[in-house]
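Example 211, ligand adenosine-5'-diphosphate.
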Amino acid sequence: MTAADPNSKLTVALLFGQPGVGKGTQGEVLGRIPGLVHLATGDMFRGLDRDSELGQEFLKYSSQGLLVPDELTCRLWKQYVQGLIDTNAYRPQMDLLLLDGIPRSLGQAQTLDQHIDVLQVVHLVCSEEDRLVGRIQRRAEKQGRHDDADESVIRRRLNVYEEETRPVLNHYDASIVEDVDATGLPMQVTQRVLNTLIPAVENRLANPLGA
Ligand code: ADP
């Protein structure tokens, strides 16, 4: 998919964790760091025109707390990444792509294997589910998100995470999966995330692929 070499895989890190754990907050900050490009599939979907066929398809699932089907998600993701490459917003040879919200199912993980080389999986962890629900509800008020207004939809999303998304963690070698405590000040969480990402990037720079 890359502009330079269609056969080479994109080097990525995955930002992983339950809804409300703070992926969005962390992703936004991390995406401002030179050399890191943040791609959140939730933002990608919300950026669709609501009146378009795809926008309606997204709403149909997200308003119920369900995942958008794998085929559509992966197809849109590929187009979106290609758009970032074409506009130079993401330079695969120089930037680390930080994927937030994808893969969210084993099917997606298998499809993405053809396109990505996962350097590190950052698993943000918060053990108190009630705290997550509270965070999501406050965010819904601030951002007017339709999928987060209703507690039953939030609980459904947390269930979908347990059933479909958490198993994705086992798809990757345990040596590249790191649990990161998502509690505390946002800047403390950022520091912890960087503490896992920086050594992984340094290690890769010292041992580039194919060297
Ligand atoms: P949160 O960060 O609160 O978990 P997102 O903003 O990432 O939520 O996603 C919002 C909604 O977008 C999801 O509930 C789901 O319907 C849809 N979505 C996002 N990413 C994916 C994905 N990889 N596969 C399927 N659906 C997705």
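Summary: The longest helix spans residues 186-206.
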